[in-house]
Amino acid sequence: MTDPDHLDVRLPAATRADLLARRMTTLEKCYQLTATAPWAFTTPDGKDPDGLTETLANAPGHICNFTLDDPAQIAEVVARIQHTAVTRTRLGIPLLVHAEALNGFLGGGHMVFPTPTGLAATFSPDLVQEMADLIRRQMRRVGVLQALSPNMDVALDPRWGRVHETYGEDPYLVAAMSVAYTRGLQGTDLTEGVIATAKHFVGYGLPQGGVNLSATEIGPRTLRDLFAFPFEAAIQLAGLRSVMNSYSDVDGVPPTASREVLTDLLRGTLGFEGFVTSDYTSLDHLVDRQRVAADPAEAGRLAIAAGLDTENPSAYGYGPVLAAEVERGAVDPGYLETAVRRVLRAKFELGLFENPYPAESIDVRAVAAEGTELSRELARRSVVLLKNEGVLPLATGSKVAVVGPHADAVALQFPTYTYPAFREMTLIMSGGGLGNAVGIDPAMAAWNSTALPEAPTDELVRTRYGARSLSQALGDQASQVVVAPGCGLLRDLGDEELDRAVTAAREADVAVVALGGASLWFNGERTEGEGSDSADIALPAAQVRLAEAVAATGTPLVVVLTQGRAYTLPKAVRDAAAIVVAPYGGPYGPDAVAEVLFGQVSPSGKLPYSIPRHGGQVPVYHHQKAGSGYRNPLPPSVDHHYLDMPATPLYPFGHGLSYTTFALTDLDVTPEIHNDGTARISTRVTNDGARDGATVVQLYLRVNTTGVSRPAQQVGGFARVDLPAGASRRVTFEVAASQLGYTNLARDFAVEPARVDVFVGLDADDRRLTGAFGVTGPPRVLTSSQRSFLSEVHVSTPSCAHV
After folding, report:
1. Three-state SS sequence of 678-727
2. pLDDT at 95 over 60
3. Sheet hosting strand 780-781, strand order edge to edge
4. Distance CA 216, CA 714 (A)
């Protein structure tokens, strides 16, 4: 018997997808766009579940996220599912299994890395690419070939609970990290890669009121030039293969139902050629939440016409509902044909038809250790020193009191979209928690009761990841560590506990006040997370009372803020002798903080978001438009924007100190370039302190064009530079004119003649070096493929500053 033509590996993936699609019925095509849970195909002990015959007759195309405790289990389940799909369905089409992988593959037994705002604080896209490359190999090994990551949202409102999932407030930094992640995950050959899924397209990082899922009121220029920028960069520079829709309305239309967003903008303007993955229950939202569709059939019609290629986590408006709409002529069959070919093409590109099965043998212990040093280094680089009045680094042998809700906490280092938090949430859901309106899936509950033994998250992260608390980590260098939390994350623990914390601080050489937030889904004490937004971004009142009481002892205070987004800080914290910001750092977050506090590591992290003085300033991102917000020039005889406080941030984007100091000198700027030329901007950075260290040289540009308000400044490039004491290096940024493009008065995306102001410093408000260059020539309209997104950066080898 001759094999079907679509199995001919010599043919291009698109041709093979077309040949296979021609063999499929309408119903098979509609199911190929849907996902189902693994328990529809198998039980944890390998038996056929009830309803398998119906599942095989329908042959869904995807398997949604599921939870198991070790890599061997995951690979075994995926192998069984694929064997069933390949050998027991009519066409034998392999399934595309997806999972989250935001800062580590969300599967038991795999390394966890710092949360994305922590990754962004490192300003180290090279290490993010290395991390994603490891995730690629780990996911490929167990047969999970689509990651619902990275998050490319530009997060401008700290009230939003999902900020920590992003790379922060700056579109350039988000783009640089997103490109690095996509390159690492997809690799140079997708037959050895994993599909990256950029989310959430588009504008999700500025919801009304900071409330998750809320509408985004964003004009078309800002949507295109700012919020779409990271997605466009990943499409053009890294060949991004999948994009996930936003839940939020854009100009009154949910992207799930918007052809303007998912087809005209994403494909027509940005040049995207992959497939669009639905966020979970997006079609349900059209009916039940956003009220733009009357029923599942109308939701399916709107979504397929918009360009949404798949539906997760199960069929609602696609599958049989969509098939019926196509058969009765209510849906253009061309929409279905296009979507199914996109999905099949991705499966052929991944090599799924040739090798649908994961690795046969997995060394669980070796897998668990993978990425250990990388996670440690990323955690070290993510620590930001905001303030230091000489108290840091601490002297070895100091007597240290550690107080606050993060003093002895371990599980709080593992936020949403890490495996421990996901596992906890899954068990709560299957047990009837979270108030699920849809009720409990009995199959899910049965799966979890068999596959996931009960284990407290704190115990799990200590035993399986070797994680330890900040107080334990400080004990490596301190002569004595006294732990007295004093308060909970959100609540007082009573006068007795507060008194214990005050006494411990009074009797210590230094008090480390471990404050901050916690990220969970919908369960437990938290300040951040998906569906966990805050109207007030101040530190919780219980923590403020603790900080004030400890400050009154007169013992030097070192405040450590563990957080995924900005909080406003009370006077007791602002006045502390030192302030450190650390992300949810995973297993080695507390170790990294301790190493910084005792000077084993010189801090080099930089804020990926601005920290406001007060919640009333929000949003207060650094790239506000010229003449707007705190970038608004004051009129004559007026010395303030607000009556009650400055409008500037308390700490700006890019801020972060070191245990040494750095000088920037000798700025050189190309005076003029043509509209297709490249400007060279270079400076010398010198470590003029007494110890080795690293800093991030930051280039900011202000493009002064005609008729359209532009950002008062935008990041034009950055370079993390390691320098021995007394040494210097020359940093050169090459900025192509096409990097300066924007949507002009004619609504063309173009680079236009302009004067470009140049600022080079060590944070967003550092103006120590300034210059300018001109762009000449007529307006030059650019397609997406003609754009430049990231400057080329060259750093010389270190030289002695005194030569």
Report:
1. EEEEEEEEEECCCCCEEEEEEEEEEEECCCCCCECCEEEEEEEEEECCCE
2. yes
3. 742-743, 749-751, 780-781
4. 22
Per-residue pLDDT tens digits for 559-603: 999 999 999 999 999 999 999 999 999 999 999 999 999 999 999
Backbone dihedral region of 717: left (phi > 0), alpha (psi from -120 to 50 degrees) or beta?
left
H/E stretch holding 382 = helix 372-382
Phi, psi angles (nearest 5°) of residue 784: -60, -40
* Two tokens, residue 20: 């296979």
pTM tops 0.90, yes or no: yes
* Cα separation values, 331 from 39, 300, 301, Å: 32, 9, 6
Tell me the pLDDT of the chain averaged across its residues. 95
- The conformation of residue 787, written as its DSSP 8-state character, comes to -
What's the whole-number mean pLDDT along residues 254-270? 98
Contact (CB, 8 A) for 413 and 562: yes
Q: What mean pLDDT do residues 712-722 have?
A: 98
Q: DSSP secondary-structure letter at 8?
A: -
Q: How many residues does the chain have?
A: 803
Angstrom distance (rounded) from CA 680 to CA 18 = 47
158 with 618: CB under 8 angstroms?
A: yes
Going by the DSSP 8-state scheme, the letter that residue 516 receives in this structure is: E
Tell me phi and psi for residue 42, to 5 degrees. -155, 160
SS3 of 573, please?
A: helix
Q: Which residues touch 72 (CB under 8 Å, ≥6 apart)?
A: 362, 364
For residue 10, the tally of other CB atoms under 10 A from its CB is 6
Residues 614, 723: Cα–Cα separation, whole Å: 36
